[in-house]
Amino acid sequence: MNDLMPLTTEQHLLILNALNLTTAFMGGAALLFTLLRSQVASAYRLALSLMAAAVGMASYHYWQLLGGWKAAYVLQGGTYVPTGQPFNDAFRYADWLGTVPLILAALMLVLDIGRRKSASLVARLAGAAVLMIGLGYLGEVQHENLGLRAAWGAASCVPFGYILFVLWSELRGVLRFETPRVRELFTGLRVLLMASWSLHPLVYALPLLGLGGAPAFVLGQVGHSVADVCAKVFYGLMIYAVAREKTLSEEMLLGLEAPREVVRS
Fold this sequence. Notes:
This protein is about 75% helix and about 5% strand. The protein is mainly alpha-helical.
């Protein structure tokens, strides 16, 4: 929940457009990932289903944010002023609690590292993600006590660091058995995930850096939206690219191993 302040027309419309576009991106991606399931091998279709579920859930939450934003402001004398209706920004945290474990599970599935090891990694990564988001939320609601905000933010960086450790270190052995192209795609996927997730702590830290008022609020809302699109829509496209590459490699291998038909004279 945010303490709303008067905004210029440009500031209000910038957030409105960001929420509109993000809602549309997420909804369109849900349909796209569902249709792309037929383009990959059966072993990787569940990964795309999880991505479709994640962006579908995100589209719903952003639709709720969009409705709340429209209700929270009214135009008076060329300035948008709060109506008194709350803008429940906690929908973002509710969304992350549901979608982050799904996108991490999709990554494990597309790597196809074995059911037992995959289940173990998903459980550990999902637990770390929930802890990271929960600790971040405890700091997010600290609008006045910046010391507590900084402390909770620092605490949430610990599980974030653990997730990065798993993605960069523990999965290194798995990637040795992949093709160079898959390793290249996976490297890009990890960088995209780290970069997009890092935008959220930067927005979180704006009050700690002495930035406040309407400009910081607008930057925060737009920043979260951009980060979510990158971490879900573009991340999902990378998941598809890995699954498609592995599908083509497996089809080629099966073609080479298939017995050749004997040509009779």
